[in-house]
Amino acid sequence: MSEQNVNTALLRGSNTKSKILKTSLKLFSSKGFKATTVRDIAGAMGVKQSALYNHFKNKDEILETLVSELTSSAIVRIFADKDTQELHKEGKTLLMSIATTFKLISFDGQNEALFKLLMQEIYRNERIREIYNEHFYQENVKKLSGLFFSMMQNEMIKSGDPLLLANEFFSPLFFYQMQVSLLKLDKKSTSSVVSMFEKHVDLFWDNIKIEKQSTLF
Amino acid sequence: MSEQNVNTALLRGSNTKSKILKTSLKLFSSKGFKATTVRDIAGAMGVKQSALYNHFKNKDEILETLVSELTSSAIVRIFADKDTQELHKEGKTLLMSIATTFKLISFDGQNEALFKLLMQEIYRNERIREIYNEHFYQENVKKLSGLFFSMMQNEMIKSGDPLLLANEFFSPLFFYQMQVSLLKLDKKSTSSVVSMFEKHVDLFWDNIKIEKQSTLF
DNA sequence: ATTTGAAATGAACAACTGTTCATATACCGT
DNA sequence: ACGGTATATGAACAGTTGTTCATTTCAAAT
After folding, report:
1. Are A83 and A143 in contact (CB under 8 A)?
2. Are B120 and A124 inside 8 Å of each other by CB?
3. A185 and B123 in contact by Cβ < 8 A?
4. 0.85 exceeded by the pTM?
């Protein structure tokens, strides 16, 4: 039975490995890396602690693997599909879709956990700080900056410092995302913060757009 | 010798207690609470671990005491001296002084450590989350909101949603403050971020102010 | 000089930590 | 059916953790 081959091949090997990663991410993101014990992880997946050492050299390697996944996660790839294709969309629509991507991250379990892991370990783990800074912050702000520069040249928005605009557009989105993750921790309502993502884009666009009425003359 | 009395009174009792707090804050804010051992704290102040238990019931009580101090720290009291007296200042000047307060926090050792402690433990410590949310976020945003409302009534700025404006003014300041603390960790230059505090106020004010030229007619 | 009380010490504890390793188990290709 | 390989187990380890406590130190008040 080749079908069973495939099944068991998936069940064996990499399956428990990915289960370890999944369980570890859940625990690390809620208790923190240091406070999570190897026994916690094993216990949560109904296995003895020594079993984990068939898949990972040690506890640190589990974290390192999770951190590596961060690079390819949605958190870091806000512009993933967008970027060039949608560049010719109406300006505000593009900004809104970026804001929505931010917003949705908070409501996907995997991404939310990765974000919480990032926030909790960023002050202790130099590698995480590096990924945050280069991939999450710098890269996205640079792309935003380029986007605003194009918009200025196309006379869609007022001219100014594109990098400043990028930072001012980015930072509230980051802040609201953090607020959502904090509110969800205490099971509080997130609705008022969630609406801020769109309000931010509305206000931001109103402030930078070139008024159409002046094209009359 | 009454002079010696005063000296030894200061040396005894509360002095070692405050030294424990100072040392603990330094260690907690750089390694995290869980990763800092009682032996670390005692060792850093040249004393044996058991000595700490004459001043605090346990390790948690040290953290709780530090967290309590948070409520009265500059981090939480952005509006401390400002508020009512300066309300009649020119609008932009007031906003700029608030932004400067934010900026200066990152460059005062004590406040910087408290901010890092806050950021590192906010996902694990419910009390810290509560203080952050009520005193640092809600309270300041509410005050900002009232400020913008007054400015709208005095026709200093365009009318709109004051709470939205407050959030949009607050969130970049918070973000830049976090950026500074992260850059300083890796001993990187903070100059480009530091200049953002002022640029933020400049741009923000330009967007909300009522153009003076229209008062000509 | 003696008493007193607060603060520091040294030693020890029990619990918990990450990790190792010989052994057992289950499943695959042959 | 068999042998091999990957994975799981049980038990143990050495080190670290927070905390306790009887004893000592030492300056202040009597």
Report:
1. yes
2. yes
3. yes
4. yes
